[in-house]
Amino acid sequence: DQSKPLQGFSALVTSGPTHEPIDPVRYIANRSSGRQGHAIAEALAAAGAQTLLVSGPVTLPDPPGVEVVHVESAQEMLEACMAALPVDIAVCAAAVADWRVAGLSEQKLKKEAGRLPELTLAENPDILATLSKAEGNRPRLLIGFAAETEQVASHAAAKRQRKGCDWILANDVGPDSGTFGGSDNQITLIDEQGAEAWPKLDKQAVARRLVERIAEQLAGSARS
Ligand code: C5P
């Protein structure tokens, strides 16, 4: 079936921000709509892949044809991802918070005039890097994102090495790129061969193009 080139393959996608609680009513978060990750999950499912989307808190509806696990924090996102293994394809598009609050308060922190609470931070797990090291269970094709403002290709190539993933989709978010606040993304795909610059595309088109590339890559290989 040519319209379903990923039939028989399984896929995992992370999307959205994570929320790291400070106390029962407050949190630390990254700015992320989840639109790119959700579009990728939808496109993978449309191409026939059995797709699990692990989503942080977003206002988007669950994409059609996709199983969705809703999580809040990075640690919950990591657990949901590890529980989903093995998968053929994993795309980490979530904007995971780099830190969580250590010594989380069970009660709402009281506001007192002239006294500021002190927050101690702890480093969050890197989900992409952890998936790349999942022994005996590493996704066959592991894809990450990188938002770069300068020297996009070289910074992203270094990130690809550091995180141990197969591909990085580098997104130019520099001041002249128009990415922030715009609906288009300027992607450079980094693989072990080098860099491939894509034209400016909207997020749905980025998702479709990525799925085409994934299907080419996996064509003919056995499903797991
Ligand atoms: O290190 P940086 O945040 O720039 O890396 C971005 C890539 O790593 C994205 O694919 C993002 O989803 C992933 N990531 C992750 N877990 C983290 C931080 C980033 O999976 N804690």
Automatic annotation (TrEMBL):
Keyword Transmembrane helix on entry: no
Residues of the DNA/pantothenate metabolism flavoprotein C-terminal domain: 6-216
Cite a single GO MF annotation: phosphopantothenoylcysteine decarboxylase activity
What's the catalysed reaction?
A: (R)-4'-phosphopantothenate + L-cysteine + CTP = N-[(R)-4-phosphopantothenoyl]-L-cysteine + CMP + diphosphate + H(+); N-[(R)-4-phosphopantothenoyl]-L-cysteine + H(+) = (R)-4'-phosphopantetheine + CO2
* Cofactor binding note of this UniProt entry: Binds 1 FMN per subunit.
Which UniProt keyword terms apply here? Answer: Decarboxylase, Flavoprotein, FMN, Ligase, Lyase, Magnesium, Metal-binding, Multifunctional enzyme
Assigned EC number: 4.1.1.36, 6.3.2.5
**RNA-binding is among the record's keywords:** no
Report the cofactors. Mg(2+); FMN
- What domain of life does the native source organism fall in? Bacteria
**Function text:** Catalyzes two sequential steps in the biosynthesis of coenzyme A. In the first step cysteine is conjugated to 4'-phosphopantothenate to form 4-phosphopantothenoylcysteine. In the second step the latter compound is decarboxylated to form 4'-phosphopantotheine.
Q: What is this protein called?
A: Coenzyme A biosynthesis bifunctional protein CoaBC
Organism, scientific name: Aquibaculum arenosum
**Gene that produces this protein:** coaBC
